[in-house]
User: Which sequence fits this backbone?
């Protein structure tokens, strides 16, 4: 079945450490997105990518980085510059703008 | 980019009754779509309904319908015959050509 796979489900970060969240899709979608969700809050856009080797900053890109070397993959790195990384991270993809996004099951990141 | 306002952080409805969730938005794009998503406690994002902005007819999906007022940039969701399984966070999301923003959400409680 086609879908989006996020891994790991839970991730712990030490102070000063970079961590990478994985997002893989086999839906053949061009566009991919990363969102951050804090407890009881909505989704805030971190980065998005419309095509391979191209991506744009969203509303809260500081302290995060991404790459899009393959159509299927859009990993998110949470760098040590992100001082408050504890949150739930959702990856999404879609074919074209008039279609809804498909979401992964999320990664919960916590600070040790 | 779009901005989204959901002015009701929490709503409550009696089982079998009807409830309406509000959403207003702003966008600079002339061609766009609007979506409502549901997020139950599992945190999975589930598409509820989609509306094409160029269509005057309001979208309907079983017990879910929208009241789309383009000039007022309003996109409310009506849930009829509410069920216990409707309890969740509901997010409004206008979608432009490239990105997709979400509102802060409305937490819906369904009372038996």
Assistant:
């Amino acid at each position: 079945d086609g879908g989006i796979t996020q891994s790991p489900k839970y991730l712990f970060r030490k102070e000063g450490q970079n961590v990478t969240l994985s997002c893989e899709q086999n839906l053949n979608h061009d566009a991919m997105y990363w969102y951050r969700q804090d407890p009881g809050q909505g989704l805030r856009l971190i980065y998005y990518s419309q095509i391979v080797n191209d991506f744009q900053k969203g509303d809260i890109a500081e302290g995060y980085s991404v790459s899009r070397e393959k159509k299927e993959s859009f990993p998110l790195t949470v760098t040590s510059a992100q001082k408050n990384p504890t949150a739930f991270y959702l990856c999404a993809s879609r074919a074209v703008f008039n279609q809804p996004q498909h979401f992964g099951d999320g990664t919960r990141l916590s600070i040790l | 980019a779009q901005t989204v306002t959901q002015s009701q952080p929490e709503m409550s409805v009696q089982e079998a009754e009807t409830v309406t969730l509000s959403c207003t938005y702003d966008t600079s794009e002339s061609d766009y779509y609007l979506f409502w998503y549901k997020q139950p406690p599992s945190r999975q994002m589930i598409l509820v309904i989609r509306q094409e902005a160029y269509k005057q007819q309001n979208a309907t999906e079983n017990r879910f319908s929208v009241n789309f007022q383009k000039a007022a940039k309003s996109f409310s969701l009506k849930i009829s015959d509410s069920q216990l399984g409707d309890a969740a966070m509901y997010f409004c999301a206008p979608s432009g050509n490239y990105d997709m923003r979400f509102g802060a959400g409305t937490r819906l409680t369904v009372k038996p």
